[in-house]
Amino acid sequence: MIALGIETSCDETAVALARDTGEILADVTxxxxxxxxxxxxxxPEIAAREHVEALPGLLQRALEQARLSWRDxxxxxxxxxxxxxxxxxxxxxxxxxxxxxxxxxxxGVNHLEAHVHSIVLDPxxxxxxxxxxxxxxxxxxxxTLLAMYQGPGRCRMLAQTVDDAAGEALDKGAKLLGLxxxxxxxxxxxxxxxxxxxxxxxxxxxxxxxxxxxMAYPELAFSFSGLKTALLxxxxxxxxxxxxxxxxxxxxxxxxxxxxxxxxxxxxxxxIPTRAVGCAGGVARNAALRSAxxxxxxxxxxxxxxxxxxxxxxxxxxxxxxxxxLLAEGAEPTPLDADILADxxxxx
Length: 348
Ligand code: KG4
Ligand code: ZN
Hints:
Helices cover 40% and strands 18% of the residues. The chain starts with a strand and ends in a 20-residue tail after the last helix. The radius of gyration is 20 Å and the shape is globular. It contains 10 helices and 10 strands. The structure holds 5'-O-[(R)-(carboxyoxy)(hydroxy)phosphoryl]adenosine and zinc ion. 5'-O-[(R)-(carboxyoxy)(hydroxy)phosphoryl]adenosine (KG4) binds next to helix 5 and helix 6.
């Protein structure tokens, strides 16, 4: 069965086609980063309008890329939440209309579970290997969390950040260093020529959970807001850093983020029976993070599965793959009168 996937939860419009085996037949994305750059953040009204404009062309391109026609589509999957309400609505309503017109099931998927599921797209994963008891770190600009994955529809959140996401910390740090948005790739590029031990930045110790925030494993929570403050104070009253110093700062800052993430993964593995370790989300493109997590996994004698770099940042391949897998495992289709779920959390 071939599923069409639509992702419009934030500022990327994406369409993909996937088989229920996880094979990706087409994958097209249009990013709006340039459109929002002047405003210093995503403007919801502009994002929604851009999704409306981009979607028809992307649907056509995806079919052309896969050399398929509308008749070949057996299901329509779309991100139902969490995300920006106006952005989610564009993709989810389009998916409903397509499912109705094509007479195929609709499946609304959770964006966070789609990131978790994107580890199945790792080409090093043995075919038909199960996903049971896989600990997955999702690290993006909007989210940082640890989830236990048993397979499609069976995903539990163990812990998450109490303040900034890891990607947000990299983006804010990069801004303080005078680097363009998004800052993660810029920091990674500069860090290659720097000394990660030049400055000792805080490793994200969680001091307190916000009232009302409940997590299954609070001791596995993340915190990144202190890191950017430490960089701010480091830069205060000094002349702008020379290129060599800038590289050292980028390397030290990146090391603090990577260390904080790897430490919590390591702690989780000591507490929770796990069969494999995975990582996904935009920050999972980072080579230093991938190698640190691969090392943690191998220390525990576990396999390491990482979403391929092209499926780390927001994409529809993970949505189509998860939608197809859910239906193949017998999940109920989403009713056509369902609404978006802008605050849809992963179950704890
Ligand atoms: O998953 P994503 O596209 O969007 C969200 O859902 O947030 O992730 C974007 C985040 C940004 O914070 C960006 O700086 C970060 O991923 N990122 C990276 C790298 N590439 C993207 N961070 C570190 N190293 C990279 N190579
Ligand atoms: Zn995302």
